[in-house]
Each structure stands twice: as C-alpha cells, then as structure tokens.
Amino acid sequence: MGKIRFANIIFENSLQEDRHSRLFYRGSGQAWKEGKTYFLSPNSFFDFTTYFNSLSVGKLRLYTLTSSFSLHLELRGGRCEIQKGRAGSFSHSGEFEKEGLSVSASQEWQSFSIPFSPKESDVLLSFAIKTHEEKVEVGQCYWELEVEEKEDVRLAIVSTTFKKEAYIQKTIKALKEDFFKDFENCRLFVIDNGRSLDPSLGDENISIIANPNVGGSGGFARGMLEATKREGEFTHVLLMDDDVEICPESVKRTVRLLSILKPEWKKAFVAGAMLNFDNQNLQMEDAGFMTKRGRFAPQKPVLGMDQVEGLVRNETFEPLEEMKKQGYASWWYCAIAVKEIERVGLPLPLFLRGDDAEYSLRAGAKIITMNSIGLWHMAFQVKYSAAVERYQVVRNVFAARFATGFAPDSDFLFDMKNSIRLELKKFGYDNASLVLDGFEDFLKGPRFLSNPLRVQEAFIRANKAQEQMVDFSTLQARASDIPELQNFDVSSLSYQDIYFRRERMLPERIFDFASQNGQRFVKTRGEGYAVIPAEGWDYPASEIRGKRVLVLIDWFNQKGCIRTKDRERFDQISRRYERDMRYFKTHLFHLKSIWASAGMAFTTERFWEGYLRRAKALMEE
Q1: In whole angstroms, how large is the CA radius of gyration of the chain?
Q2: CB 256 within 8 A of CB 6
Q3: Cα gap 534→536, rounded to integer Å
Q4: ∠ CA(597), CA(601), CA(607), 5° rounding?
Q5: Among the listed residues 179, 185, 148, 175, the one whose alpha carbon sits nearest the alpha carbon of residue 61
Q6: Cβ atoms of residues 459 and 387 within 8 Å
Q7: Which residues of the chain have pLDDT under 70?
C-alpha cells in the first residue's frame, strides 16, 4: 500500500488567460492569485464540484486499484467551513454534508487531511469552502489516493507542428514552467514538419526535431520512433496536436493515472477530451467511433463541463457495443504504452486524417476517458476544409480498409456516394470532384502513398482545388454581377437567415432524391437564391430546392462563396463516379491483394525510417 498525490486543486489554467473559471470553481465568491498562493474572497461560498477539482471516484474504481480517497488542504487567514460533497448519477449539483469542518482564524498555515468514504453510487467526490468576514489563503491542496501499487511512468510527449509557432511555443512554455519541474524523467518531442522553430527552444526536457513535411501521421511516426528507439527510457507516449491550449495539470493527472492502472487496463489508450477553444466550457468529444455508414463520429453528445449534470453524464456514459467495437482515441491527446506501440507498429502513411482511428482499431484498444484529462481545440466547424473532409478522408478510409482491415462494419462506399450526392445537390461541384480525386488516388494502389513528395503535393493540390471562400466585402462585390443576387445584402444577414430549417413533406423528399435538386431525370434551370451554411455536412434541403444560386456563409470566419447550378458539371461528375466504380469492381481482387501486402510493410520501423529519409532527400532537391 502507498499514497499518491493524484490531482492538485487548481483555480485557473496556469499561464493562460482565465476565460473559464467555472471549470475550476463556482459559487458566490472570487479567487485571485498573489505570489504563489490564492485567496478566497470573504463572505463567500466556493463549490469545487467542477471539471478540474472534483474527483472521478467512479472512474478511479473502474480503472485502478485505489482503496481510499482523501482531500488534503492547507489554509490560513480568516475562519471558514469545509464541507464534504459528492455527486451521483442523478445529481444536478454537488450534494454537501450539513455538518462541515470548522476552521478557526489563524495567521499560521493549518493542514487538514479529510478522508472520504464514497458510496457505491457516487460518481464524483467534491468539497466546498464557506468563508466569513476575512479572506482565506489557500496553500497546497490536492486529492490523495491510497493504492495497492504504483508503477514508474516516464512519458514521451509528442507534438507534430507545421508552422504554428504561436501555439506550440505556448505549449512549450506551459510544460517548462508547470510540468517538468515535477516530472523530470519525461520529455517533449516537438516534431517540426515546417522546419520553422528555433532549436534553442529545446532544453534538457525538450527536443526540437526538424522533420520533412510528412503530415500528422509522419510526424507522429517520427515521434514514436524517437521514443521507442531510446530503449527503456520511456514507458508511454502522449500524442498531442499543436493547435491547442493545454492545462499542464491534465498531463500530470495522465501520468499519475497511468501509474496506478489495473492490469486489465494497462494496454488501454487514454483519450483526452476536446474542449471547445471558443466556448471553453463545452466538451465536443473525447472517444470517437466509426459509424456503420462510414463516418467519424463522437461517442458522446456535446456536454457542458461547467454543469454538474454534464460532469456526471460524461463519467457515467456507457458506449454502445458498435461504439466499443469501432471506437478510437483521437490524437489531439492520446496516451499509449510503449509496449503497445512495439506490438502494434507505427501508423499508416496517410499524411493526415484517419491515422488515429485506424491505429486504435488495429490495436483493438480499450479506451480510458476521465473528467479533467483533455485540452482546448478549435471546433471542427471553425476549421472545416473540403481538402481534408472530401479528399483526404475518402482516400484514407479506403487505403486503411484495404491495408489493415480498418472499420469492417463501416460502409465507405455508401459514405462516398452520399458525400458526392450531397455536394451535387448543393452545387458544390469542386468539392464533389475532390471526393473522386481521393478515391482515384486510392485506386492507384499503395505505391502512391509510398512516395512522400507525391502525397504532399496531392494535399497541396486538393487545397487549391477546393472551393475558395472570400471575405464578405468581396462576396458582396461578386453578388452584384449575378442577376439573382441583386437584392442580396450580406450585412443584413442574421444567424437565423443562415441556419433556419423548414421540414420537408414526403413528396418533397422523394422529388429531391430522384431529381438531385433538378439535375437528374427532372431537369430545371432553377430560380432565385438561398443562403446556407458553409459546413460541408449540412443539408438544408428545403432551402436549396429549386434554386439557381446558393450563397454559402462561414459564420465564424466571416467568409463566403457563391455557387451556381451547372447541369453539365453534374453530368460530368456523375459519369466519372460511374466509371470509377466500374474500375473498382473490376479490379477489386487485385486492389485487396496489393494493399494488404503493403499494409504489412507500412507499419514497420524499417518502412518509416526509409520513408523519412526519402522525404528529406526529395524535399531538399
């Protein structure tokens, strides 16, 4: 038996602007920092049933061999009361014991170790502090666990970056100042695909590694190689995106959690949550899964982490069997044991998108999630890219399926056809072409992916070919040249104008499906215009029906574009799809054979070492 300091009580995300205090505490008071300690305002109530400061007792019982739980507090200043709290499956707020611990006023530090005896039904443990006429100073406070055994965890953090210096430098600073001082045997490997970082940013705990631009999969593969080739130096690898805001305390808790896992969870992947960078109390996703229709999807709904109800739902959520079977941990924050990397191998050379899902399914990984383990990331709708979602996704899911048997229950042919159909209905001919570009590059066989320069050039080409959004002033100027848009005024648009939906009747649904918005069987020129969202997955069927012109608006980025119905392009793309499908069906056996053979090689150290050498040589020519 031994004790472990599992989770520090924190009042803000260290080194970051405090824009999300309800993730740390709620109540009537304010906390502020003076020097190295925090103060609680007088005559206030502080509830710590929050994302970062409650203790996930239900998850700890599931994943670890923890036998007891206690809260350590150091206080001085005015008198106060400490109340023990908890939350169960049906809790909407913290439930606190009426009889609390009275703390007398003192100018000397007073230390308290408060044991908790959780019920079987408890999901979270928490506490509250009620101050009186004087402020209270808070010293070291943390949740402490008693565990049967504790392993030494040495974490290699790998972040792949491409010319996002502001983000990655912020991450480096945060880890330098609030992580490595407590975890000197851990290391950060920054894989610099853009070769734009100053090597002097490195130190005894940080390595800046210049790398050719081989995408996220190539950067993470390089990081895995760096970690695993140092035999015995690291036990786990934490893969992390670059365009994120981290909380160092989340990384600390990840290390401590990995050190106390039950034997049956030691091979599991820790999936950190994606919190919304712009609405920082919202959790967008933690674990994901591949749907039967071939889409990447979050297992959980969007949850408010500033509400106890959201915290409880996040910890009690039980994935459906189809989610477990095809579940994955995304690489914006994912911890993997080195022994698992040695067993499973390295990622496929997909450049970006889908490499993390394929890796999780190939590993057959169980997935660990927990409140307080995660980071803030730009929401997908804010950074939507047809080059990624139409070209990269289509090419990569087929390559992964044929190379390693990825997501056997998912119908990628259905999803590809549906994506093309959706784009054509919305007159998105450029983006529909990207879907077929991705499929055709898959049909070229694995030699295409084996050439790092060709893969990079394909992504650049997709970015140029995708529909280009323009600022609102340019959009308005272009609208003035189109007869249907003479009354269009972008400055007068409201959110409702863009996102309003009218329900369709059954005859309308049948007509939409049959005619593809007046481009098949019943062909019409179309009249007037509609304003719709720019997100590629959105289908405003009633709004676009019978229109000749569509104005797409990217609300967040304040950009837009104009599409015009073109039945000739519809026919060209439809014929191209039919031709590609004939080729696919005719050569199916051959495609299965060559991709399966390549899949065995793609995931080896030998392949990746050669691939990275070739990439460096090709890109330096």
Answers
A1: 27
A2: yes
A3: 6
A4: 150
A5: 148
A6: yes
A7: 14-20, 381, 621
Query: How far apart, in Å, are the Cα atoms of 121 and each of 59, 67, 89, 220?
Result: 12, 16, 7, 40
Task: Kindly report, residue by residue over 164-198, the tens digit of the pLDDT.
Answer: 888 999 999 999 999 999 999 999 999 999 999 99
Residues in the chain: 621
Reported as half-sphere exposure (CB side, CA atoms, 13 A), residue 475 has a value of 21
The pLDDT of residue 480:
94
For Cα atoms 508, 422, 465, give the angle at the middle one, nearest 5 degrees: 150
Sheet-wide strand order for 470-471: 470-471, 559-564, 549-554, 529-533
C-beta separation of 154 from 236 below 8 A = yes
Task: Give the single-character DSSP code of 392.
Answer: I
Report the alpha-carbon distance of residue 349 to residue 141 in Å, rounded.
45
CB 342 within 8 A of CB 228: yes
Spatial distance between the Cα atoms of 101 and 115, rounded to a whole number of angstroms: 12
Tell me the torsion sign for CA atoms 316, 322, 324, 329. negative
- The helix (H) or strand (E) run that includes residue 122 is strand 122-131
Alpha-carbon gap, residue 15 to 174, rounded angstroms = 6
Alpha helices (H) in 392-428, listed in sequence order:
393-404, 412-425
pTM for the structure as a whole: 0.94
Q: How many Cα atoms within 13 Å fall on the side-chain side of residue 122?
A: 22
Tokens of 305: 């982490």
- Other CB atoms within a 10 A radius of the CB of residue 614 amount to 16
CB atoms within 10 A of CB 574: 17
CA distance 161 to 179: 20
Question: And the tokens for 47?
Answer: 């509830």
d(CA 610, CA 165): 28
* Euclidean distance between CA atoms 109 and 417, whole angstroms: 67
Q: Which candidate, 557, 165, 543, places its Cα nearest to that of 384?
A: 557
Query: Tokens representing 562?
Result: 């104009």
Is residue 133 exposed (0-12), middle (13-18) or buried (19+ Cβ within 10 Å)? exposed
**Which among 86, 151, 94 has a CA at the least distance from the CA of 119?**
86
Q: In what order do the strands lie in the sheet with 287-290?
A: 296-298, 287-290, 327-329
Query: Structure tokens of 235?
Result: 């036990």
Contact 517, 480 (CB under 8 A): no
**Maximum separation of any 2 CA atoms in the chain, in Å:** 84
- Would you tell me how many other CB atoms lie within 10 Å of the CB of residue 485? 19
Q: List pLDDT tens digits, range 351-371.
A: 999 999 999 999 999 999 999
